[in-house]
Design a protein that fits this description.
Length: about 160
């Protein structure tokens, strides 16, 4: 896990550690979105994972999507920044398009499917479905916070 601290002075108060993750919202020409059913907990999510220390965010998205789904992608743009306030995870989410490959399972994915936006809303927890919705809407990147289950409504 990538960890950092913004306070480096030994006299300064400790700052909580955070990890940085990336996810790809891969959209096909027919509007369907690439999703995985996680092998560890059975939840449906966009493919993604922890950004490695020396890795650029776009490179991390390409790596994670390919590792989890077998799909090679082109990263188009940042669509959102999402903070899990209970776990200290900051997720950078990017809209992507398919460049090649074919769907395959991995140690991390029990299923790989192309879902419609309505299927995303019905299968995914709110904190993951909103990432897809935000990416499909276009416009400026959204910045949102959540507790791992529900979005913070007071932002």
């Amino acid at each position: 896990m990538l960890m950092y601290m913004s306070n480096t002075s030994p006299k300064a108060p400790s700052t909580p550690l955070h990890s940085v993750s990336v996810a790809g919202i891969v959209v096909r020409e027919d509007g369907r979105v690439l999703t995985i059913k996680r092998a560890d907990n059975g939840t449906w999510e966009p493919p993604g994972g922890v950004l490695e220390l020396a890795e650029a965010p776009e490179d991390g998205v390409r790596r994670e999507v390919y590792e989890e789904t077998g799909i090679k992608v082109r990263v188009d743009r940042l669509t959102g920044v999402y903070k899990n306030t209970s776990r200290g995870i900051v997720a950078l989410v990017f809209r992507c398009r398919v460049e090649g490959g074919h769907e395959q399972l991995s140690d991390e994915s029990a299923a790989v499917e192309w879902l419609t936006p309505d299927e995303v809303t019905s299968r995914m927890a709110e904190v993951y479905a909103v990432r897809v919705t935000d990416a499909l809407l276009g416009g400026a990147p959204r910045v949102r916070a959540h507790d791992g289950r529900k979005l913070a409504r007071n932002l």
